[in-house]
Amino acid sequence: MQSMLAVNGLVRRLGPGFTLGPIDLSIEARQIVCLVGHSGCGKSTLLRLIAGIERPGSGTIGLNGKILAGPDRFVEPEKRNIGFVFQDYALFPHMTIEQNILFGLRKRPRKEAQTRVAMLLELTALTAMADRYPHMLSGGEQQRAALARALAPEPSIVLMDEPFSNLDRDLRERLRHDTVALLRQTHTTAVIVTHDAEEALSIGDRIILMKSGQIIQQGSSRDLHDQPVDRYSAEFFSSFNRVPGSYRDGKLHTAIGAFPCQLDLAEGSQALAFIRPQAVCPCLSFDGLSGSVLAHSFRGEIEQFSLGVEGLEKPLVMRTTQRLTPHKGILRFRIDPQTILFFPAAGQDASNSQAA
C-alpha cells in the first residue's frame, strides 16, 4: 500500500489552555480512518489543518509525497486536491444539487463534467433530485449530496467532519453503511471525524483516538477495543465494572475472586480489574458467586441487572442475552477471566496494563 498522507510534528496552539500536538501520523491509500475522541480533543482542528483551512504553528503535512504545509510552504485549500464534507454539509443554497456537484468541475470539459455528475448522482441515489435545491432535501439526502460534491473532482483524500451527527439513529446507521460502501466502490481514501465510539469501531480500517490534543492510541478496531493502552482508551470504547483489589503473587485479589495478571507492581499494591458487563455471566450451579438484584432493565436483545455483591461498594452490572428469573431476588454469576483488563489504582505506577 502506498502512503498517501503524512503528518510530522504538527503543532497548533489554540490559546493559553490548549495546544494540538505534536501529531505524527500516516494514512495509506484507500484506507478509511476514523479520528475519534471526546468533544474538544482537537480532532476537528486536525482535520482543518490537513484541509488547509487553518495553518499549523510548526510541523509538516504531506500528500502524495508533496509538502502542503511546512516552515516555508503553505498550499491553499483549493489547490490541495482534498475533498471536505462539513458537519452541516455546507451545500450552496442557491444552487441545485446537480449544480452543487458540478461546482468543483468548472475547469473540466463540459461533457466530461456532466458524465461525472451523472455517475455520482446515480451512485448516491440522487438522480431524481438533481434539480432540487438543498432545502428541499432531507438530512440524509443532503449528506449524500455533500459527499457527491466532495468526490466529484476525484480528490486524493476526503475529509468528513461528524458527517452523521445530525441524523436520527436509524438513518445514521443506514447512511453510515451506504457512505462506506460508496467510499470503497470509488477507491477513496477518507478520514472521518466522530465522537461516537461505536461508529468509529464499525467503519474504520484504522482508529485514531485523541485526548487533549494528543494521539493516545491508534490501530484496528479490535486493537483499541480489546487491547487499550490505558484507562481512558478502555473506557472510551466500552463500559466496565471497576473492581478494586490487591496485587499479590501475580494475581489481583478482589471481593469476587483472584485473577492472574502481569502488572509490574510491588506486592500489596492496589489495582483495578476492569470487567465488562457481558463478562459477568449467569451461573446455574450453586458454586457460583451471588448478588442481590438492585435494578433490572429489559433492552430487547439483552437484559441488564445491577447486582449488590458482598464486599463491593458499587453494584456489579451484568448484561446477558439469557432470559433470567431471579430466585428470591438473587442471581448467581461467574466472571469470564479472558476479557478482564487490569490497571493500576490512582497513584500507583505500572509499566503496562494487561488483559487476562
TrEMBL record:
Database matches in CDD domains: ABC_Carb_Solutes_like
Q: Which UniProt keywords apply?
A: ATP-binding, Cell inner membrane, Cell membrane, Ion transport, Iron, Iron transport, Membrane, Nucleotide-binding, Translocase, Transport
Q: From which domain of life does this come? A: Bacteria
Residue stretches making up the ABC transporter domain? 5-237
Annotated organism of origin? Aquamicrobium segne
InterPro entries named among the record's database cross-references: AAA+_ATPase, ABC_SmlMolc_Importer, ABC_transporter-like_ATP-bd, ABC_transporter-like_CS, ABC_transpr_FbpC, P-loop_NTPase
GO MF terms, alphabetically ordered = ATP binding
| Protein's name according to its UniProt entry | ABC transporter ATP-binding protein
Gene3D superfamilies given in the database record: P-loop containing nucleotide triphosphate hydrolases
* Family from the record: Belongs to the ABC transporter superfamily.
Listed PROSITE patterns: ABC_TRANSPORTER_1, ABC_TRANSPORTER_2
